[in-house]
Amino acid sequence: MKGLATVALGLSLIVLVNYSCFCYGDLQVGYYKYRCPDNNTDVEKIVRQSISSQNLLDPTLIPALIRLQFHDCFVRGCDASILLDGSTAEKTAPPNLTVRGYEAIDNAKSAVEEQCPGVVSCADIIIMAAREATVLGGGQFFNVTTGRRDGLISLAIEATAFLPSAEIPVDASIAVFAGLGLSVTDMVALIGAHTVGVAHCSSFKDRLYNYNGTGKADPTMDHLLLTSLKITCPQNSTQDNIANLDQNSLSFNTVDNSYFKEIQDNKGILGIDQEIDLDTRTNATVASFASDNKFFNAQFAAAMVNMGAVNVLLDPLGEIRQSCRSINPPPLPPPPSK
Ligand code: HEM
């Protein structure tokens, strides 16, 4: 009888242990709990404090850090390959030349290393930083999963090949996202990140002067917007100015659903922005987000978690980088024996 009771207790403990693990695939919520020399170290809090203090000095970190997660996860998975320096590394590829936030990640990594050396991956710091950016931008808080390891390879040609360009048609974009396990709803929610940040004229100039090679403007663009963008981006100017992706001037740095309302009013900046409202495969989702800010924010949070799980490296693959900008040096050979 006593033996049976022990087995039953053991089984229920196993069940309890299993249910107390908020796992997502093989990543976990709270992976770093109890992994630092001081068990009380709260890694996510260190990243939060680092990012929020840096954001006070530069609030454009909000869009920069959200985009950084996208550009990391879409090339070799979320493995911090975008952070590696080098003349042929991902960050030198054309789609990455306007990516920002590298110093912010370096600073967060240094703050983490001070209290928890050699334990926290740069890949996870990107994910935590993007969550902080979302919250600082007024978006919904969400639990991030952690436990990623850092990759050893970063190739510009891969970033050029795998990052979608501004003119990507909706069906091709759906295929790219689906190839990474992301649904159409995830895709529309994630493109909703364009509720913050800017685009350079070079990313949308064709829509103003030579839409689809017609020598004319995109007929779907709102006329007032077209006029003002032509002033921002004169046809023959070599200067690459910027325009807000969310044309609501009160919320261009706020993570909310106003971007979806703007694209419904034909005020999308990039080709893909306008297309997701025009395409029958995506416009119902656009409408559902435009009409419900809470719903958009919940779906955005869920989609960021889903994107954060794309092709991650788990122990024993990859490494925990000492510096986010370079792979670790090989271990020193043992001293010659006398
Ligand atoms: C088909 C998908 C997408 C395309 C084609 C696309 C394209 C672009 C382009 C061309 C820019 C402007 C770059 C410039 O001219 O400086 C941009 C900016 C931005 N993108 Fe996307 N994007 C896509 C999806 C996403 C996703 C999934 C996210 C994040 C979840 C994201 C976040 C951002 C942010 C925040 C900015 C503003 C960056 C800043 O202000 O520094 N984008 N995107």
Automatic annotation (TrEMBL):
GO cellular component: extracellular region
Residues at the catalytic site: H71 (proton acceptor)
GO biological process assignments: hydrogen peroxide catabolic process; response to oxidative stress
Residues involved in heme b binding: H194
Signal peptide residue numbers: 1-19
Chain sites annotated for binding substrate: P164
Biological function: Removal of H(2)O(2), oxidation of toxic reductants, biosynthesis and degradation of lignin, suberization, auxin catabolism, response to environmental stresses such as wounding, pathogen attack and oxidative stress. These functions might be dependent on each isozyme/isoform in each plant tissue.
Family: Belongs to the peroxidase family. Classical plant (class III) peroxidase subfamily. Belongs to the peroxidase family. Ascorbate peroxidase subfamily.
Protein name stated in the entry: Peroxidase
Organism: Protea cynaroides
